[in-house]
Design a protein that fits this description.
Ubox_domain; 20% strand; Herpes Virus-1; six-stranded antiparallel beta sheet; TNF receptor-associated factor 6; extended; zinc; TNF_rcpt-assoc_TRAF_met; ubiquitin protein ligase activity
Length: 438
Amino acid sequence: MSQGQVGGVHINHNIDFQEVAGLNLAHKMASGSDHYNTNKSEISVAQESSINDAYSAPEARFECPICLAWLRDPVLTSCGHRFCRTCIYSWLEKNSACPVDNMKLNKEDVFPDNFTRREISQQRTKCPNIVRGCLEELSPLDVESHLLVCEFKIPELPDNEKLRCSFIDVGCEDKFEDEPELQRHLEQHIQKHLTLLSKAYTAVAANRNAAAATASTSAIAQQANFWDPPAKNEEQTVVRDSNLQELLKALYEKIVFLEQKTREQDIIIANMSEQISSYNLSMTKLHQRYCNGCYLWYFNDFKNKINAMRENPHLMYYSPGFFTSPNGYKLCIRLNLSPKDNHYIAVLIHVMKTDHDDALDWPFSGKLSVTLVHPTQSYRNIKETMMTRPELDAFKRPVQDLNPKGFGYTEFASLEEIMEQDFVHKNQLTIKVQAQTV
């Protein structure tokens, strides 16, 4: 147990492995070397992707700044830059400046670069299908034509058998040959998918407003056919029974109509609310998955929750789960009163179960940083960093949704001094956790 003064707050730290007392920070680093075996029968999909990337990357002087691939029909501009002929011509149809230095440029300033073309034709690269047995070495200019006739190429899947992007419902129409390609798409097009979600949300809100306006117009049109009371300046001394019957009938019809419209509006509002809740949940899950291991937990209603934990010492609060990477480890934060001294809060990290745990290395190995964030004076932040210990159950693969073993500090900070130093703002305490795999 260590005691000290951090940012004006007295903290009494007691690291809790749920198994041992005290904190023993053991820094371990592992080193290794990756190698590729080009034997056709032993290369995995992951290796194949790496090999293809290595062989297909051109040197910087042979790379088109627009398409980022080998120069095809290279041309040289008056400002000294090289592009593919089709790339720069397509660019100049929409812009009148060089895409590299923004100097004024037109098609008359573009000239064939036969010297670079000869240099590229003398380069030799492996066929991308080398991992499936093709040993051809050819010019980068001939790769595309060779792939069309290569006997080792993978037959393209029919369109109806390709994998669809999981964001198809909001407008992403991309299709993929295999699961790794789909995963790369999801990781590389986060901004695109967030934009599609935002547009879909806007469309739902617009449809809701349009439906409400249509219903209002329809109601006004229907009401025009109902009975109207007589004008005030008309002289009516006697109201006949027939007129009373017509009045009652008209009022009854209006009541029935309004009740029906109310039910329709309730159904529309319920459906819209359900869709909005679904989109909000999707946005929250995206934030948790793509936070890259840096998560902010806003612990709301702080005072009431502290009082509840004092009345029930076994009460604990957990944050939503967050990921170290889009397909990485899932963690959550636990906050409760210290079982040794209820004048201190305990902050611990738990590992959670995911659908892709088979693809992760266990036990979890990495560095964890826990920060108690001051809302106005960052120099008062309380931050502690700890290394994981692979021999502890807290970092082994969970068999339940939440690993019952936690790792962290059972006496992280004093409640009294947290309140005195104004760590709680608008009845909210902010805890930041950074998780980095090693």
